[in-house]
Every structure is written in structure tokens, then in C-alpha cells.
Amino acid sequence: MKKWLIVACFLPLFACARFRIVAVPYVPNPNVSEPMKVIERVIKHQPPYYNTVPHEVSVKSDCIELRKWDVTNTIYYRNIGNVVLNKTDIWYAEINDRLGHWMCYVYSFDESEAKLFIDAIYTMMAKQ
Fold first, then answer.
1. What residue spans of 22-110 are helical by DSSP H?
2. Can you say whether the dihedral through the CA atoms of 22, 25, 26, 27 is positive or negative?
3. Whose CA is closest to 99, among 119, 79, 125?
4. In whole angstroms, what is the distance from residue 56 CA to residue 38 CA?
5. Is 11 helix (H, G, I), strand (E, B) or coil?
């Protein structure tokens, strides 16, 4: 009985170890020539990881509107605090607000696409 109890306690830890999140150090280069097009393309072409792909994407000069089902999530560039590049089994950019709270994830199979997306976000943030 003790063995089963020990196995039951450690099983969640082993399951979580598979999805190890690694924050990748990256210094953004906010000098993208067409940042709005890059943001829209990367969001629209992200893999359907955890069913995160919005049905409609509208990238404007002051915000990004993501519509999924009947809910619209609006992310204003002026409210973004930082964007962190992460790697699990897939690359993703984690957008956080100025207080450090999560706002959005954007996934990519390619490291270069994830970095370009971050650069485009910082380019738009610099224009605000």
C-alpha cells in the first residue's frame, strides 16, 4: 500500500518534468520594417497548440485584437511590459503587462519566427 501511495504522490511530478519550460535569453531588435504584417502573419500561422489560434486577428497601430469564438481580447501596445521567449516542446512568446501579469501566448515551431514576432511587438511598442 505504501508503494502505491508513493507512486501516486510522485506521478504528477514526473508528468510535469516532461513539460519543462525554459526561458530563453533574448534581446529584442525593435527595427522591423513592417511590424503589423509580421504580427498578424505569426499569430495567424501559429500551430494550434492548446487550441490557441484565434478565429480573427486584427492588428492596428495601437493594439492587437484577437477574436476567439465570441470573445475579443484586445492587447494595447502601451500596456505591454515585456515579451519573454520560452521553449518547451515548442517556441512561444509570452506577452505580459506592465505589472508582469500574463496577457497572451503566441506559439511557433521556428525560433526565428518567435524572435521576429517579439521584435515586431517591440517595434510597435516604441511607436506608442
1. 35-44
2. positive
3. 79
4. 15
5. helix
**What structural domains does the chain harbor?**
20-126 (2.30.29)
Beta strands in the chain (DSSP E): 22-23, 56-59, 63-68, 71-76, 80-87, 91-97, 102-108
Q: What number of other Cβ atoms are within 10 A of residue 64's Cβ?
A: 25
Confirm if 32 and 120 have CB atoms less than 8 A apart. Answer: yes
Q: In this predicted model, what pLDDT tens digit does every residue of 5-33 receive, in sequence order?
A: 444 444 454 444 445 788 999 999 999 99
User: Is the Cα dihedral 7, 13, 16, 22 positive or negative?
Assistant: negative
Predicted TM-score of the model (pTM): 0.83
Q: What are 49-61's pLDDT values in tens digits? A: 777 789 999 999 9
